[in-house]
Design brief:
Oligomer: single chain
Largest sheet: 6 strands, parallel
Strand content: 25-35%
Distance between the termini: 20 Å
Number of domains: 2
Strand order of the largest sheet: 11-10-9-8-12-13
CATH superfamily of the largest domain: Nucleotide-binding domain of ferredoxin-NADP reductase (FNR) module
Helix content: 10-25%
Order of helices and strands: EEEEEEHEEHEHEEHEHE
CATH class of the largest domain: Alpha Beta
Number of helices: 5
Number of strands: 13
CATH architecture of the largest domain: 3-Layer(aba) Sandwich
CATH topology of the largest domain: Rossmann fold
């Protein structure tokens, strides 16, 4: 359990082959409702790869929803159990043609998982293109910041990477230098988005994505430089 209602899970392909994906992509889990009706749920790949594009394990973060059909399935899985899935899908990825000086990566909840997968790519870009990366992560309290120790360690290792924890309800008893009180918009304002040099990624709660998109657009960022993926909790 990464948080009281979020579980980290790792899977391997049943055929023993590696799982190939591009950081930022997602997979779909296929299952059936109690009445037999087929359905599926999408989860971003959270695996930190080696940069080769293929990994032995597919990692995801699952947010539990009361009464959720996917929650009933995934919460009761035991080591060695199997599920059906497909993918990867999606284009919420870093682009080779980008010539920006900074990435603004904004997330809430499990929306931070694609950025975890992007860390090796970002480290390479910081070394080759000397870009800056600001990860702005919103949660109600520190206990709901998923993978925060990993992001803090990555920031300590890479001076061009900065991790901002935006706590909207309960600040830490001992605040850290990059903690901010309030929603992600507080840190975005402070970071002064630059239309000429920034590309932003928004992932998580739909309200956050819409509000941050409007803020960045008002700041002058071109719409193609504001890339979005909304997470909706489904039953």
């Amino acid at each position: 359990m990464l948080a009281p209602s979020v579980r980290h899970m790792a899977f391997e392909r049943a055929d023993g082959q590696a799982f190939a994906f591009v950081p930022g992509q997602f997979v779909q889990i296929h299952f059936h409702y109690a009445d037999g009706k087929p359905t599926k749920r999408s989860y971003s790949v959270a695996t930190i790869g080696s940069g080769s594009g293929a990994v032995e394990q597919l990692e995801i973060a699952v947010s539990y929803v009361d009464g959720g059909a996917a929650t009933d399935l995934l919460a009761n899985l035991k080591e060695g159990d199997s599920i059906d899935g497909s993918g990867p899908y999606g284009r919420f990825c870093l682009m080779d043609a980008d010539a920006n000086r900074r990435y603004l990566l904004v997330a809430t909840g499990t929306g931070v998982t694609p950025y975890r997968a992007m860390l090796p790519q970002l480290e390479k870009l910081m070394a080759t293109r000397r870009i800056e990366v600001d990860l702005v992560y919103g949660a109600r309290n520190a206990g709901e910041l998923l993978y925060s120790d990993e992001f803090e360690a990555f920031a300590a290792k890479n001076p061009n990477f900065h991790f901002y924890a935006c706590l909207s309800r309960t600040p830490r008893t001992e605040p850290r230098p990059h903690d901010r009180n309030g929603h992600v918009q507080v840190a975005l304002t402070e970071l002064a988005p630059d239309p000429a040099h920034d590309i932003a990624y928004l992932c998580g709660n739909p309200d956050m994505v819409d509000q941050a998109f409007a803020q960045l657009k008002d700041a002058g960022l071109p719409i193609p430089h504001i890339r979005r993926e909304k997470y909706v909790s489904s039953r």
